[in-house]
Each structure stands twice: as C-alpha cells, then as structure tokens.
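cron nightly-structures :: item 1 of 1
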Amino acid sequence: MAIGFAPETASVNSSRRAARHRNLEPAEWTAAGIPLLINPREVVTDLHTRHLPAPGTAVVAVYSPDERLTASASFAQRPHVTDGWERRNAILVHLRRITADDLRRRRPVRTAVLLVCRDGGAGWTEVDGAWMWGLRDACSLYGLRPGSYITMTDDGWRVQGEERAGRTPNAASWSATSRGAASLRPSGTPPLRRAAAR
C-alpha cells in the first residue's frame, strides 16, 4: 500500500487563483479613481475618538457628499486574510447594521471609508490589498462610492494609495486615550464598539 499526499484538485487550484484576483495592488487602487479626502487627518482623528481602535480592529464609516459622517461601526478582524471575498462580507455585514443601502439611486452619492488598525509596518501588504478589494466590492453591492482605505500602525496612520500620512493618532493611542475602558479589556482584545453618527 502506497502512502503519500493526494494531488490538489483543479477546484482547489482555481479557488486559490480566484482568491489572488480578489486583491488589489496600490497602483490598481489609485487607477480606480478613489475620491480623495479633503482633510484625512480630521477623518482619522474623528474615527479614532469615536471607536478607539486597537490592532485587530477595522472601522467602516459612511460620509455624505459634504464629508459629514452619517454612520460608522468598528469590528474585530481576522488577521492574515488575503482574500477580498471575506473582507467584503465583513464590511457588508456592518454596513447593513448601521445604514440603509443607496441602490435605488442612479449613481452613488455617499462614500464609505475604511480604517484598519493593525500590527506591522505602514507599507502596503497583501492583507491591505484584500481590504481594498473588499471595500470596493462592498460599495458596489451597497450603492456607495468606495472611499479612502486608511491603515493605522504603531508608526501612525497612512492613506494607502495616496501616501498622505501622520504620526498621531496611532495603533497605541487607544490605550492612552481610554484608560478606564482599556483596563476592562483582556490583553490583546480589540474594542468591539459600534456607533452611528447623526
């Protein structure tokens, strides 16, 4: 009797190829014509104040045409996921909880922005590419415009694809800002908060 590993099936190979396509490179993101934030520092500071994201947390926010925040939610994220399909589904779940879709409009008016607080360097990673693909696809399915994708690390925040960045707030800021709340969280547990702005 021979013992060994069975060869991978065609369906496994094709699903891996599909997963690689559900991932955007920075150049593809830039070429997609994502609308620029007028004042990214204000957006990042406001979302940080509302949600106090720690590493392992994502924040999705919806803005009106005049860049007024209309709804936002923070949620825990699975690390190391490089398939945008899973990222898209996570974004859609939280969009549905905080705001109605705009699918009846002829063209998108509101914009969704995604801030991801994570460990590691500020540069683009494959995980970021999956979030970008997920944000773009979720917006298409929900009748929104895909907006900026922002990462927050220990080095500060960065609008990926635009190279606009700042040193504060950063991935460690939540612990200094929320002394009381931080002490109640188990070590390494991201804050799970949802907020809807009016």
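cron nightly-structures :: done
The two ends are 68 Å apart (CA to CA).
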